[in-house]
Amino acid sequence: VMMMKMNEDLRRERAAATFQPELLTHILDGGAERTRRRKEIEALVINDPDFQHEDLNFLSRSQRYEQAIRKSSLMVMKLREYGIADPEEIYWFKSFVHRGRPEPLDLHLGMFLPTLLTQATPEQQDRFFMPAWNLEIIGTYAQTEMGHGTHLRGLETTATYDPATQEFILNSPTVTSIKWWPGGLGKTSNHAIVLAQLYTQGQCKGLHAFIVPIRQLGTHEPLPGITVGDIGPKFGYDEMDNGYLKMENFRIPRENMLMKYAQVEPDGTYVKPLSDKLTYGTMVFIRSLIVGDSARSLSRACTIAIRYSAVRHQSELKPGEPEPQILDYQTQQYKLFPLLATAYAFHFVGAYIKDTYRRISGDINEGDLSELPELHALTAGLKAFTSWTANAGIEECRMACGGHGYSRCSGIPDIYVTFTPSCTYEGENTVMMLQTARFLVKSYTQVSSGQRVTGMVSYLNDLSTQRIQPQHVAARAATVRINDPVSLVEAYKARAARLVEAAAKNLQAELNHRKSKEDAWNRTSVDLVRASEAHCHYVIAKLFTAKLSEISNAAVRAVMTDLCLLYVLYGISKNMGDFLQAGILADAQITQVNQHVKELLAVIRPNAVALVDSFDFHDVHLGSVLGRYDGNVYENMFEWAKKSPLNKTEVHESFHKHLKPMQAKL
Amino acid sequence: SVNPDLANERQTASFSVEKLTVWLDGGEERTRIRRAVVEAIESDPVFSRENQYFQTQNERYEAAVRKAVHLQKKMHEMGWTENGPEFKYIYRALSGDVAFLLHRIFMRSISVLGSDKQIAKWIPLAAQYQLIGSYAQTELGHGTYLQGLETTAVFDITTQEFILNTPKISAVKWWPGDMGRSATHTVVFAQLYVHGKCYGMHPFIVQIRSLQDHSLCPGIIAGDIGPKMNFEHIDNGYLMLQNVRVPRENMLNGFCEVQPDGTYIRRGSQQINYFTMTTVRISLISDEVVIPLMKACTIAIRYSVVRRQSKLKPGEEEAKILDYQTQQDKLLPQLAAAYAFHFINDYLQELLDRGYREIQRKNFDTLPELHAFSSGFKAMVTQYCTSAVEICLRACGGHGYSLLSGLPSLYTKILASCIYEGENTILLLQTARFLIKCFTAASTGQPVPPSVTYLAVGEAGKCPAKNKLDFLCPDIYTKAYQHMAVRLISSTAAKLQDLIQSGVKKYDAWNQCTVQLAQAAKAHCHYITVKNFAATVEKLQTKAGIQKIMKHLCDLFALHGIFSNAGVFLHDGYISGAQMDMVTASYLDLLAVIRKDAVPLVDAFDFTDKTLNSALGSYDGQVYQRLYEWAQKSPTNKQISPAYEKYLKPLLHNMLSKL
User: Fold this and answer.
1) Looking at this predicted complex, what is its ipTM?
2) Binding-site residue positions of A for FAD
């Protein structure tokens, strides 16, 4: 490989930065030692010839699946060879191997094995865990059905207990009950944990989990009674064999129901589980991963768009001068810098949830679950808020790269299609927002009835003492200082309080109109989602602001303070209606906010490239010609295009098949 | 059989779907012709899109070429001509999945920019497909800003030829459709040099592939630019020129000419060029933007009455997801927008026709207005509809993510429209430049085009609405939009003025105001869209059956815009906080009203199942059955994957020994 010189524009950008990007990288990683270890693992993967392959953009779906399976098998072996066992380190290794894409063993490693650990009896663990650990058994987790997603109680798959043979009979009674979407189900897995409605002694006992063998060990052929396959092409996830599964009178032994909690005895007697609060923990954990993923995906897109905007020149700003870098245009800064600030904000939120979860899960083992409901409610909303924002932000970054952003070589289309399903999986976002809203309304009701609430919702306590009065604007508005993040967080707090109160009151009004509880809730749900969004936005602004005081290096703190201020002010600018309507800010202050946002763009401009360098994505991981660290964009686009499948032959076969005959005829 | 949930929706329609369809088409005759064209295309297996979602880039390209070739035959058979009433429906019936679209641009550029002699030479060859043309403008390093292009054409007086070169990597032609594999000729835009002097951008006809064996001509390096988000059927290409010589006659010289001795002559006005761009921008709104949104709405809304999820009331069956207020809030405003932009397209077509008549009379006065409107609306409509299609996609949950839903391809296709034919931000700023100019003229009492006379109206005052029903009065909300547009334009003009007076250089002042300027341009287009929708509804008085539902949609479009941009309406107090609560209440009420007619409103778009090509959106609503059947066609299910033998089997059997 020919070594290329760094693009002159990028070199200049980096030289002009006011801080050292490595210091910021350490903060993002959680310490210099973590950064060192991450890079060590990164090097293990990137320098390993086994993990190298052709650009995936040029491969068909089947070929991409094949590559992924090849790498996954190697990955499992090498992880064990290197003795990497820490979950975060495994995560790093995996994302370098698969370059941030999903892979067919995701569900085996991420759901099948953990579910065995948490829900299987010791006897079941003996039977299944080691074979699964050694990949004789490859499993997936089959929950969603064609007609049913987020609403679990609606699942239709049945498992009927037959005491005569001591077996469960599994059935997919309707088309809508066919299991649909589970990753690794289509082609890879030979077992699945299937969620089904349990029937015993003629009664339905609700959803339970069963270990179901689906393919013959040895031949990998589907077992009799099992219909299994790939669900076909998707927007992204090309390397994942998302699958379907249809079962017809398929029998499994009684011992294949996961029975650590609920049990069915040989005679069919059903033994109820104890508390189901524990399952909250897993959900909180997975949602915290999605928040982190929102941050990372948006960071990758920002890295690409900002580096490219420093390399790309277009039009003229000053008559007679050479074409400027497009990053010098205010409109381009306005598209990208708020997203850059958002990416940082989400990093800190992700870290906060992870830390809080660790702290609380310590408590879980000691039996103190008091904080869990709030964390559960909060993470639902934050999962939705961050994934929606990142989803839109990635697209914004792609658009900011103009035509070249549309090419697969930009890497952003892949980031987008890989990320966008997180708005749906692990709880559809609107449903998540409404879960948070339910908690907020409950807290509001508690406050109204004289109780005090704690945690992130404690601002609701103030509502009982100082009623929010939109008419009395001036006094309150005067107290907001638009250069002070802490004061602005108070404004976000007031907005959240106002919207929670408004939604709760509208809900009450619907109930007063003799609407049923469910109807009233539905007729208020647009308000409720807005309230949740405002609450999440407040939490994020608060966490970002709080982070500033923890940064010891003055230069880094200065640039992060600018970014934080931009994040907070931009959010106000975009939602100014809420702040105006509640009288939190006056007209003149909004004008100042808008103006200040634009001033901050110019302040951040010199550090923009250093701020994305701090995310520290290796070129291989970034997978983008536009976002290369060295900025040699055009040369490499040309090299990339030459490898396109359409370029395999100089004259395409369609010339002989179609063009030539037509020209002869006309 | 039709899914009963979907069938029920149709029984309660408040209007005649057929009458609405006919009205949208512009009369019964057009509906008849459209259906006949669609029928003829869809019954021909060559045009089938059945396997589209399973094809590789190579297969898509080949199919598109085959269809383009077959289309010539078909048109001949059916007696369709390029000037006939059927023509505009052909592309719609093909869903654009056909090659040689740039061939038409090639022909048009010769017709517009060439001399009579050039037209006589090239057009018959192109019409007979004796050559296949493309149009090479953008370069790797240069897009919307044409003056920045770097390709050179140097006149060699001794041989009477132009020598074309790609002097550096950023000058490689990049993106032109049909150029990667198909084209034999292309119109190359290059900087013209004569006797060492640069005369700026000029178009040259360059042959790039042999007419015998299709191999590349000497000095030409060309190929496909690789995979994209969509348009796999189009061979967007690159082109490098190394001392490629073309005769002097190959420079398109309708407006300028290099004479044999090297004398450069310019004749006539090049303003007509702008008119071409304007036409293209307006023509893409219907086919490339509004129709895809209509399709996305059809798919998402039909699916939302078939899909059931959770229970609204205990004991009842799970509710249709369209019965959730949050789902209505996602989809129904997009449906209203599809109608709003269908009507704005009519408005723009009329503006264009009027402009064209003036131009034919050598009156170019309407050009600036036309140019500003086409730029602004291209930007506003493409951006709005792109995010609308994405909302539809995400509103279909997991299944929306499957290619078989049809939504991912609609989305990846429509979003390209935000970039081609002018990047949206740049276009909005062009519109803003026009608006600021008109505002300044209007405020000093000078005449302005009729479409912007509203800028002269004072901006003071308050919204007079007293209750939520007042907000269902088009006059009330149209005024609010007008007020908002005037406020944003006038405050930006004032800010620009202030900056310049305080000594900031003009170009710097402009750059410092661009965020506001783009917002002002969008506000203008939003206002015109609302006003035009309201005017369209008013003209429907003779069609009482559909007027009522159109009025609801118009109200919804307008109020949703206020609801979701509350800040700009509240900012100067034109709408008060209490009034904003009324807007919200009225908006939410409307969702429930339009909900009842949602399915008939998408049925009226009259897309056949083959056109939609969606497992979720078919007329009969057999969503799950179709999804299951279509998945079986996936190559991943047909071919035996080599992955099992090569990787899975060793993994499953031999791993233990290695661990």
Assistant:
1) 0.94
2) 144, 183
